[in-house]
Specification:
Layout (H helix, E strand, L loop, with lengths): L5 H9 L4 H8 L4 E3 L2 E4 L12 E4 L4 E4 L5 E3 L1 H9 L12 H12 L5 H7 L8 H4 L15 H15 L3 H10 L10 E3 L17 H18 L8 H8 L2 H4 L1 H5 L5 E4 L2 E2 L5 E2 L2 E4 L4 E7 L5 E8 L14 H9 L5 H16 L3 E3 L11 E3 L7 E4 L9 E5 L1 H9 L3 E5 L9 H7 L5 E4 L9 H16 L3 E6 L10 H8 L8 E4 L7 H16 L10 H19 L10
Parallel strand pairs: 16-17, 16-18, 18-19
Antiparallel strand pairs: 1-2, 2-3, 3-4, 4-5, 6-11, 7-10, 7-14, 8-9, 11-12, 12-13, 15-17, 19-20
Helix pairs in contact: 1-4, 3-4, 4-5, 7-9, 13-14, 15-18, 19-20
């Protein structure tokens, strides 16, 4: 396109059809991921393309590693241009300058037009006057907490666990039988759920029948097929069953398909549908034991099994250089590695992406960004914050109150949980993955979370251990590898307050390494491969600096 005025520049930049072209010009590894645009985060030394998401249907962007986020292409580009002061004229309004800079870089205007337009007065009403296709925001409000809790419990009861997933949880994750009540095999289009019960694929219908069965037993002490006609009529008039499908359409993950006729003439009756995934559904609970959401652990591609021996893509290249694998295998392994890093392993059960599609009503955003697991044998338990449900299971098994986030940048979602269970305690422990020592994005989030904890009167301490070449990345891995001797591999340090605190040692080690490499503090302009090597060295040096051995007892 060609632009001949400031207004046309605004129209081009704000047009959703140009999102991909603009982002691809400025940033690396930009690609479509369904309803999202994925790429490397421009605001920290990002190594994985799965961290940054630009959601198309609501025009929101966020990095789930460093936590930066905002709404709209302008907020993203203005933040990007903050440090690029030479690209924008100082006399120009920041928003107008950002739009003109993008238009010039995209070839819509010339450098002469850029200089001329930059002197024009910026008028905010330009945004309202331009005739640009706007993406509607019709995401419905979520159902009540009680309705969400009931729906997800019914879902878990109906779906059950497949033999494959049960074996994975008991053998590979080493959970106990009683822990399986929070997990279920997620139903999808290609496989039936509730394999043990032989239930058909109509999940909302099966949930309704299960709810009717529970109410019939509670009210009459009978099964639904044992009820008389009068009892069935009375049962159907219970408000919960009367409004079941309407309430279910507002539960995150479910939505209502309105009655319509397809182009081929097929009549589709109104019915409730749900977003399909293939994996393990993991229920999240709040401090009162109420289910607030479901996270899905997606099934791995079977081909990823070939990558078990390689912690980083450089390890694949090293194996090829040493003659351990063929050139064709090296290429295939690298492609698989990039694919695995690009695709998320965990997703939230949400139907917000369905809200703007034709013939759809409902569609709610997922609620909650974490959960809590209480110890099986309560006592004077410590509060330990970690990332992910499986790590939390092991932490609770060791006698602690485990609070987990579904991503380090979502730590604000667990603030109510911390305050609900803190009681008399004045100390809280943080046990993120061992390899996060070398991840500057995670460190940034950890600092923010520690600031919050100190602000509410808690003293944060960090639990550290060596990742041992990738064998002991998470706390659950550490327990599986070392059994009851895991405690000898842990070290607890205060977050701040002493020269040997986590923050002091981290900043000192990182500064020394930056000077040795000659890199800028924000690692901007450094090749992605070099950033990975820097993070690897930072991990190794920090493990040495903290001397990750010793014995502790978490419950104080």
């Amino acid at each position: 396109m060609k632009a001949y005025s400031v207004k046309q520049c605004w129209a081009g930049v704000c047009n959703p059809e140009n999102r991909m072209d603009i982002l691809s010009y400025y940033f690396s590894d930009v690609h479509l991921e369904g309803a999202h645009i994925g790429m490397l985060c421009p605001f920290h030394a990002d190594e994985k393309t799965g961290n940054f998401k630009y959601t198309l249907h609501n025009d929101l962007w966020k990095c789930f590693s460093c936590g930066e986020g905002g709404k709209g292409i302008l907020s993203l580009m203005m933040k990007y241009f903050e440090k690029e002061t030479t690209l924008l004229p100082s006399s120009c309004d920041p928003k107008n300058g950002c739009v003109l800079r993008i238009s010039c870089d995209m070839g819509w205007i010339t450098e002469e037009q850029f200089a001329a337009f930059s002197h024009e007065k910026y008028e905010p009403e330009l945004l309202e006057k331009q005739e640009v296709k706007k993406i509607p925001e019709s995401i419905s409000p979520a159902a009540s907490p009680a309705a969400i809790d009931n729906a997800y419990r019914l879902m878990q009861s109906v779906c059950g666990l497949s033999k494959k997933h049960e074996k994975h949880l008991l053998r590979d994750r080493q959970l106990e039988k009683e822990d399986l009540k929070a997990y279920f095999t997620f139903p999808n289009r290609t496989t039936s759920f509730g394999m043990a019960q032989g239930i058909p694929l109509d999940l909302p219908g099966a949930m309704y029948k299960k709810a009717a069965e529970i109410l019939a037993k509670r009210k009459y002490g009978k099964k639904p097929y044992e009820l008389t006609r009068t009892e069935k009529e009375e049962l159907s008039k219970i408000p919960y069953l009367q409004h079941f499908y309407e309430d279910l359409s507002h539960v995150p993950g479910f939505y209502l398909v309105n009655e319509h006729t397809t182009r081929s003439g097929r009549h589709i009756p109104a019915h409730v549908e749900y977003v399909k995934y293939k994996g393990i559904g993991i229920m999240s609970f709040d401090a009162d034991g109420r289910c607030t959401g479901v996270e899905v652990r997606l099934d791995d591609n079977p081909q990823y099994a070939a990558l078990r021996s390689y912690e980083a893509i450089e390890d694949i290249e090293t194996a090829y250089d040493q003659g351990l694998i063929r050139k064709a295998d090296c290429r295939r392994y690298k492609e698989l590695y990039e694919e695995r890093e690009r695709n998320p392993r965990y997703v939230r059960f949400s139907s917000s992406s369905m809200a703007d599609k034709a013939h759809i009503t409902g569609g709610a955003k997922a609620s909650g960004q974490g959960g809590i697991i209480y110890p099986k044998h309560p006592g004077k338990a410590a509060i330990v914050i970690t990332e992910g449900r499986f790590k939390a299971e092991k932490i609770a098994e060791k006698g602690n109150i485990a609070i987990y986030v579904t991503g380090v940048s979502n730590w604000k979602g667990i603030c109510p949980l911390v305050e609900a269970v803190r009681g008399f305690r004045n100390t809280v422990y943080i046990a993120f993955d061992a390899d996060n020592l070398g991840n500057t994005g995670v460190h940034h989030q950890l600092v923010q979370m520690a600031d919050y904890l100190e602000g509410i009167g808690l003293f944060p301490k960090v639990i550290l251990w060596s990742k041992e070449g990738g064998r002991c990345k998470g706390f659950d891995d550490l327990c599986i590898v070392h059994g009851e001797r895991y405690v000898k591999h842990l070290k607890v340090v205060p977050f701040r307050g002493t020269p040997l605190s986590y923050a002091s040692v981290y900043e000192r080690t990182r500064t020394e390494l930056l000077e040795a490499y000659g890199y800028p503090e924000d690692l901007k302009g450094i090749d992605r491969k070099q950033i990975r090597l820097f993070h690897k060295d930072l991990q190794e040096k920090l493990e040495i600096s903290f001397v990750l051995t010793g014995m502790i007892c978490l419950a104080e």
